[in-house]
Amino acid sequence: MIQYNLLTAVVAGIFILLSLILRLKLHAFISLLIASIAVGVIAGLEPMVIMKTIQEGMANTLGFVATVVGLGAMFGAILEQSGGARVIATFLIEKMGEKKAPVAMALAGFIIAIPVFFEVAFILLVPMIYALQRKTKKSLLLYALPLLAGLAITHAFIPPTPGPIAVADIIGADLGWVILIGCVTGFPAVIIGGLYYGKYIGNRIYVEAPTHDLLKKKEGLQNKKKVPAVSTILFIIAIPILLILTSTFADSGIVEIQSGILLEVISLIGHPFSALIIANIIAWNILGLKLGYTKAELLKVTSKSMEPAGLIILITGAGGVFKQMLVNTGAGELIAESLGGIGFPIIVFAFIVALIVRVIQGSATVAMITAASLVAPLISNTSTSFEIACVVVAIAAGGTFLSHVNDSGYWLVKEFLGISEKVTFKTWTVMTAIISVTAFCIVCLITYIF
Question: What is the dihedral of CA 232, 237, 243, 246, to 10 degrees?
């Protein structure tokens, strides 16, 4: 009877969550909280226990996520304002030439989306793919899809972007391993989905660069001061990633550190908090003050970056509440035992849950956080950091799958490429399915081999 109640609670919680988001159009934050309360009530928890669980889940999640997402948003805002995104894209195109411009755009998207939000990065680089199309007279899709593939993969797979940070914290993954495995799975997905499929569909559907004035509304994003060197931009983007990876390798014993003091220093500066603080300070000075921005201008830019970060932080906190409710009711343990009993791999379960939620309600972030909340209680104490990071990437792959009409990204792509809904589905939607499945297959292969 207890097992029946717990299973009913989980199914009802997911149904209520999706109904609130899809039918009533409630924000994901309050929808996750209501769904969590429903799980607690149906599972038989006392009212005050439910309230304490909400507080516990929110507190445990936001202590890490709020700090990292906030610092990451500020870091990305300074890079964006400095014009660094265009500097990287221009450099890659110049070095690779017109024939390899699709590769250059894929690399640019992959690199730039590390610190900059997907939507902003795309808008910043849209003028470059317009210019390439007008110059070469080839289909705009040949340049747009590689760029979008690079942006989409990094946005979902590689910290310090908010999605993977939130998922990693909810299920207890090491960010260094997530970065490493995200890159290993992400590169092939970009090649297959962005470059190969982009070339295939671009040769069959001709799209000209639109002449509408959508970009004029975004003039505030463009830099009017001195432009930084590409080496400077790449160095600053690499700082937090290298520091986090170094700490991960040192802590896991991959890199042996004999000195205890040195190990402590590496652990300190390689923690995501310290790594992003260091990156922010360097970016503030090199990409801000030295380029001619005043302290007041930089303060305005970084303060504004908190607006989108705040929404992501709240949704992540609510996802942590949902996870904690599953743990405290015992529903998570029940699901784990059931999956173990039938021999169903957690990594496959994680991918499928994220995929289903993504297709039904549209938001990749909500899909990833919901899946992480369901998967977190299933993670065994004996699971290694490597195995847990693979689960994070599987969730990211599922959350990337099949962007269509209920996803804001679908409409962003449609409008800025100037294409119809049908063409958007054949290009962007199909591409997201390809990169999702490709990444999942690779992470499954990695898990099997290692």
Answer: -100
Residue 107 has pLDDT above 90, yes or no: yes
Helical (H) or strand (E) element with 77 = helix 47-82
Per-residue model confidence as pLDDT tens digits over 138-153: 999 999 999 999 999 9
Distance CA 210, CA 349 (A): 42
> In this structure, what DSSP letter does residue 284 have?
I
Least confident stretch, 331-335, 370-374, 387-391, 426-430: 331-335
* Alpha helix segments (H runs only) across 97-216: 101-112, 118-136, 141-157, 162-171, 175-189, 197-202
User: What one-letter code names the amino acid at 108?
Assistant: A
Residue-wise over 294-304: b if at least 16 C-beta within 10 A, else e?
A: eeeebeebbee
pLDDT tens for residues 253-293? 676 776 678 888 999 999 999 999 999 999 999 999 999 89
Residue closest to 375 by CA, chosen among 357, 363, 359: 357
User: Contact 298/225 with Cβ under 8 angstroms?
Assistant: no
Which helix or strand (DSSP H or E) is residue 83 part of?
Answer: none
Report pLDDT for 220.
43
Q: Measure the CA dihedral 153/156/161/166, to 10°.
A: -160
Judged against a pLDDT cut of 70, whether residue 223 lies above it is answered with no
- Of 234, 235, 259, 257, the closest CA to residue 247 belongs to 257
> Exposed, middle or buried: residue 350 (CB in 10 Å: 0-12, 13-18, 19+)?
buried
What does the alpha-carbon distance between residue 182 and residue 358 come to, in Å, rounded to a whole number?
19
Q: Which of 447, 305, 357 is nearest to 365 (CA)?
A: 357
Q: What is the DSSP letter of 186?
A: H
Q: Quick check: 393 and 368 in contact, CB under 8 A? A: no
Q: Are 163 and 395 in contact (CB under 8 A)?
A: no
What region, left, alpha or beta, does residue 139 occupy, with left being phi > 0 and alpha being psi -120 to 50 degrees? beta
